[in-house]
UniProtKB/TrEMBL annotation:
Belongs to the LysR transcriptional regulatory family. GO terms for molecular function: DNA binding; DNA-binding transcription factor activity. This is DNA-binding transcriptional LysR family regulator. Residues 3-60 form the HTH lysR-type domain. InterPro entries: LysR-type_TF, LysR_HTH_N, LysR_subst-bd, WH-like_DNA-bd_sf, WH_DNA-bd_sf, YidZ_PBP2. Pfam families: HTH_1, LysR_substrate. PROSITE patterns: HTH_LYSR. Keywords: DNA-binding, Transcription, Transcription regulation.
Length: 313
């Protein structure tokens, strides 16, 4: 028998009512139509399903077997086609999220607290983003990736969480700290620390370096690391410069200053996005978690905390 939901629904009602007339009323059909449906069920299932008695219909062993499983099956199909409102508190599941370490370090504590409060049955697996994150989204290994907006496959859906301007960070008593505007010559005179993020810093070339290469210039990069804390310790104790996005919270203390980038670099505003595969776009758990992340990260942008894609450049 090929599954026919109308027939299976009719069988469920017949099993519940044990009466053709009552089943017909519940399904808003005539008694003859209900009798024809019962006959079709008997033919499709190759079983009489019911015998008549003075007390109504008596189910056969086959019908009793179906009675045990049919309600749950039809309810599952109904919820699949017409899902109930998502209830985070009763959800149990795991999400896999990847992103730059410097962003995850800010997001994960607040996200974990939110999930423990609102969806205690939910667990997270967090990892550093890698160069093959698009393939990982495609295969289902990852549910979400936090990254910089760029051209991607149409199968990947992006949700914006905020924008950040690029600045040049240095220690507070750096020789350039007193200058109102640093020049390109100033910028290239000093050594640099570069933060690494997969798919942004690639082939040992950062976005800033690509811009410099167009004019035949290059900077002296003495350290490349994915650790923001390590990078900050270096620029705190040396004359090294570091390009960051829009004054992250770690630099908002008296040990550092941030300067506008040299005008010659003409650096664009960067947009941070949450990326997911198209197949999960209508998944209620995914919609809910994405909304939570958007709210948290948008709040951090408004509060001038990180989420300006610090690791960049």
């Amino acid at each position: 028998m090929r599954p026919d939901l109308n027939l299976l629904t009719a069988l469920r009602v017949l099993l519940e009512e044990r009466n053709v007339t009552h089943a017909a009323k519940r399904l808003h059909v005539s008694q003859p139509a209900m009798s024809k449906t019962l006959q079709k069920l008997r033919e499709e299932l190759n079983d009489p399903l019911f015998t008549r008695s003075s007390h109504g219909l008596i189910p056969t062993p086959r019908a009793k077997q179906l009675e045990q499983r049919l309600p749950e099956l039809l309810d599952q199909i109904s919820n699949l086609v017409h899902p109930k409102e998502f209830a985070p508190a009763s959800y149990h599941g795991r999400f896999n999220i990847a992103g730059p370490g410097v962003i995850l370090e800010q997001l994960i504590p607040d996200l974990s607290i939110t999930l423990q409060e609102q969806a205690p049955g939910t667990s997270l697996t967090i990892s550093e983003v890698t160069t093959d994150f698009t393939e990982q989204l495609g295969s289902g290994q990852l549910d979400f990736v936090i990254h910089i907006n760029r051209s991607m496959s149409e199968d990947l859906i992006k949700t914006s969480v905020g924008f950040g301007e690029v600045v040049c960070a240095m220690r507070a008593d750096h020789p350039l700290a007193a200058k109102e505007q640093i020049t390109l010559e100033d910028y290239l005179h000093y050594a640099h620390v570069r933060l690494y993020v997969a798919q942004i810093t690639h082939a040992n070339i950062g976005v800033v370096d690509e811009i410099l290469n167009q004019s035949g210039r290059q900077r002296n990069i003495v350290l490349e690391t994915s650790s923001l804390s390590a990078a900050l310790n270096v620029i705190r104790r040396t004359d090294c410069l570091m390009v960051v996005a829009d004054n992250p919270v770690e630099l908002q203390d008296s040990a550092f200053v941030c300067k506008t980038m040299p005008l010659e670099l003409g650096y664009p505003t960067l947009e941070t996005v949450i990326i997911q595969h198209r197949r999960s776009i209508n998944s209620q758990p995914h919609l809910w978690l994405r909304g939570v992340m958007v709210e948290l990260m948008s709040h951090f942008f408004r509060e001038e905390r990180l989420f300006r894609s610090t690791a960049l450049l």
